[in-house]
């Protein structure tokens, strides 16, 4: 089980139910993961964490490709249009809506 204050993202084989890979995030998350594809058709997973961190993982093996840390916490799931990620943050000091190029 994950430590308090962290979350796990699992890739599951749909035929066997076995875990193919797992990725431990540094904070709890209520955001859903989002799948995107690069210009070569390779799948990527975007997962936002409550601490404002966004992780970009390679879908086939869970390798972390990139992270971005925003100023406030994230509770929303990301939306993707083309090569742009749109996500909102919330916090006691301010809230924001970000449009981030992901390609």
List the helices and strands and how they pair.
Elements: E1 7-12, E2 19-25, E3 34-37, E4 43-48, E5 53-58, E6 64-69, E7 79-81, E8 84-89, E9 96-101
Antiparallel strand pairs: 1-2, 3-4, 4-5, 5-6, 7-8, 8-9
List keywords for this structure.
mainly beta; 3-stranded antiparallel sheet; 9 strands; globular
What would you note in describing this structure?
This protein is an all-beta fold. It has no helices and nine strands. The protein has strands spanning 7-12, 19-25, 34-37, 43-48, 53-58, 64-69, 79-81, 84-89, 96-101. A four-stranded antiparallel beta sheet has the order 3-4-5-6, with no helix packed on it. Strands 7-8-9 form a three-stranded antiparallel beta sheet, with no helix packed on it. The radius of gyration is 14 Å and the shape is globular. The model has no long low-confidence stretch (mean pLDDT 91).
Strand order of the largest sheet: 3-4-5-6
Gross morphology is globular
| Chain-averaged pLDDT | 91
Instruction: Name the helicity range.
Output: under 10%
Give a quick account of the main beta sheet: strands, pairing sense, barrel closure: 4 strands, antiparallel
SSE string, helices as H and strands as E: EEEEEEEEE
Say how many strands there are: 9
Estimated share of beta-strand residues: over 45%
SS-based structural class?
A: mainly beta
* Low-confidence segments: none
End-to-end span in angstroms? 33 Å
Query: Total helix count?
Result: 0
Radius of gyration from the CA trace? 14 Å
């Amino acid at each position: 089980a994950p430590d308090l204050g962290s979350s796990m993202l699992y890739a599951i084989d749909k035929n066997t139910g076995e875990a193919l890979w797992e990725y431990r995030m540094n904070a709890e998350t209520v955001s859903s993961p989002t799948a995107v594809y690069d210009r070569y058709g390779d799948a990527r997973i975007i997962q936002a964490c409550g601490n404002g961190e966004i992780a970009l993982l390679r879908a086939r093996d869970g390798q972390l490709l990139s992270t971005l840390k925003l100023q406030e916490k994230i509770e929303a799931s990301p939306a993707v249009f083309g090569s742009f990620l749109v996500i909102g943050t919330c916090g006691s000091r301010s809230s924001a809506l970000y449009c981030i190029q992901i390609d």
